[in-house]
Each structure stands twice: as structure tokens, then as C-alpha cells.
Amino acid sequence: MRLFDTHAHYDSGAFNADRLEVLASMPGQGVELILNPGCDLDSSRTAVELAERFPFVYAAVGVHPSDCGPWEDSWVEELRALAAHPRVKAVGEIGLDYYWKENPPHDFQQKVFHTQLELAEENGENMRLVDRARGIAYMGLTDYEQAAVCFEEALGGSDGLVQDVDFDLNLYLAAAYTKSERYSEAEDIYDAVLALRPGEKDAYFLRGNVRMVQGNYEGAKEDFDKVISMDPKNYDRLIEIYQVMDYFGYGETGREYLQTALTSGDKDMDKYASGRIHYYLGEYQSAYLDLEEAREKGGVESYLYLGKSYEATGDYNYASNVYNSYLEKNEGNAEIYNQLGLCEMAKGEYRKALDAFQAGMQLQNVTMMQTLSFNEIVAYEYLGDYRQASILMENYLKNYPDDAQAKREYEFLSTR
Fold first, then answer.
1. Phi, psi at 327, each rounded to 5°
2. Which pLDDT tens digit goes with each residue over 264-291?
3. pLDDT tens-digit profile of 128-143?
4. Most buried of 38, 131, 172, 335 (most Cβ within 10 A)?
5. Residue closest to 23 by CA, chosen among 53, 62, 61
6. Do 47 and 60 contact (CB within 8 A), yes or no?
7. Could you give the C-alpha distances from 171 to 175, 177, 240, in angstroms and in order?
8. Following DSSP, what letter does each residue of 43-93 receive, concatenated?
């Protein structure tokens, strides 16, 4: 088997003891090509040095968002010189990374990223891919209109032959249109994709979503029926379809999908799948019986579904035990901490609830920060600490000014 390692970091300190020996052994193990991207100036230099030494190694040079804190504008000149080396094939590893709290500020990451994209363009890289990268970055910044412009420019660079990248770009463009509430334009794209690739299951599902938003229930159901017929054992997707149907007021039809799956006699359906389906059908006892057997199957999600099933029956004590058992065995998880806090609130244990919400807020994954922050404020209210709740709410509204419920809560706190 001939292999191309498209993303390797042999510049890493992990290879200090035997870097050259490891690389020299690669051709004998079937690895014929290696691309080694840098993450900062030092690793980019090392990547070029390795590419000079081994004829099957090529380099990419760039500064990763996690490593861009010390960035100075003068670095562009050295990166430009490195990128001009004949053994350098791309500018990378670059991008945006908002996951880790300790990473540089978002606006600084954006500046460094766009500077390096300009360098990639200057260096003669494929402009369609450069525009694609820009578009994805704007999607991450929730600037969907500008993202759409970038994807449109990338598509405009086509030579007329439809390639895989064209399908990829069209799906990104449809997502940008959807986020911009340009639903009919998104639907047109899915129509075009499916005309050329009628087996594209994701496109049917996504088109069903935009049809539903536009009030075309029959068209959406047709697409969802098609998805299920093409992949009847994909229970994750089935549950997604139910959630969409339920959100738009067609929960009964969504439940029919779930019930059909349960009664289909699929011997391969595991307890994790059946437990989740029972949960959405409101059959909570059946749900927690199945999910107890599958507690480790679905990772954190299985614990969440199991705990929520017990919550739905009013057994908040056991639900709390479920969430705590996860935390005892695994790293912290924001959603687990949030559900644990809600259980403690339901039990009247407001101090424990506050501790849970704040523990979730200390994690590096901040995707639930708004929910956790709001619940923290509510916990302070129930503890009778209205002053702290008011201070936190004032700050909360600076970060989330469109939260109408929070505005009403702030008015209430102002009277205490």
C-alpha cells in the first residue's frame, strides 16, 4: 500500500531522540510522501530543513492560531522567504481556534489568519481554496453574508468541470445562505447538488430543513422520507429529523418515524439507540432501562439521556447520581454540570446548583457559557443574594443583549 501522510509534525519535540531515523524508515513502511506543516516560526524552519534533507518530505509554513500570541508584523517577511522555498507547498498550519480559553484574543487571531491568507494568495496557492478558507473563517465569525461572498468567489473560479471541491463549496454556500435566512437560494443549491448527486443523503436532509423553514411541509417530509429510506439504520439522523419536525409543530409525524423504527424488528439496533428513541417518545421508564445497559456506549450523551430520563420521572436524586458518576470517571463536561445544577435546583439545593454551574463555566469548552451564566444568576437569586445576581446580570446583558428573558429578570432584580 502506497501512503501519503498529509499532515505530520516530525518537527515536534516528541521526535528529538530519533527524528532522522524515524523519517529514514518511512519509505520502507510504504509512506512515499509526507507533508509537514509548521505551527510557528521555529517549527516552520524545521519543516523546511527536513524537506531539504529527505526527498519524500515537503513542508508548509505558517503560524497556528494557538501559537500566534507573540506574532509581530515582521514575521511576514520570514514566512514569505520560507514560503518561496521550492520544497514548501503551502502556507499552514493556520486558521482560527476559539475552543481553548488560553488562546490569543479572537480579533488578534483573525488579523494573523487573514495576513497569512494574503501570503498564501501571493504565493500562488489555489485561489479557490484560499477563498474557501476565508469563507469558513467568516462562518466561524457568524458573518454569513461575507462567508457567502467568499464561497461565491471560489465557485466563480471554476474551469467549468464539476469537481469534488465544487460540491463542497456549494454545500458551504447553502449553509451560509441558510444562516443568512436566504432559504430559497439555499434550496436551489440543494436542488442542483441532488440533480448531479442523487445519492447525497446530507443534501436531502438539509433541503428538508430549509423547506420546513419556508412552510413547505410536504416537500420537507418527502426529503426526510428519502433520507430514512436511504439510510434506515442511521438513528442519529432519525432523531435529528424528529427534532426538526417537533420544532416546527409536526411532532406527531416525527414520533411516527421513531415508532416505526422501534417496531421495525432491527436486530442490530443497540440499547443506546432504542433508549434515545424511547426518551423522545416520552417512554421514560423504557428509556432509562435501555440507557442503563448502554451507559458507556454513547459517552457523555448516554449519561445525559439517562439522567434526563430520570429527571422526566421526577427522580432528581438518581439523575444527580448519574451526572456525578460521569464526572467521577471522566473529565468535566459543561452540559453535564449544567444538568447537575438543574437537578440540584429542583431539589432545593441551591448552593450545590451554584457550584455545578460555576464548575461548568471554568471549563475550556465555552459553548454553553450563556446558559451556564444565566443559570448561575438564577442560583444566586434563589440563594437570596440579589446584589450579586444583579451585578452578574448587568454583565450578562452586555455579552448577550438580545436575551429578552434576561432583560425581564434584570428588571425584577432592580426592584429587590
1. -65, -30
2. 878 889 999 999 999 999 999 999 999 9
3. 999 999 999 899 888 9
4. 38
5. 53
6. yes
7. 6, 10, 19
8. HHHHHHHHHHH-TTEEEEE---GGG-TT--TTHHHHHHHHHTSTTEEEE-S
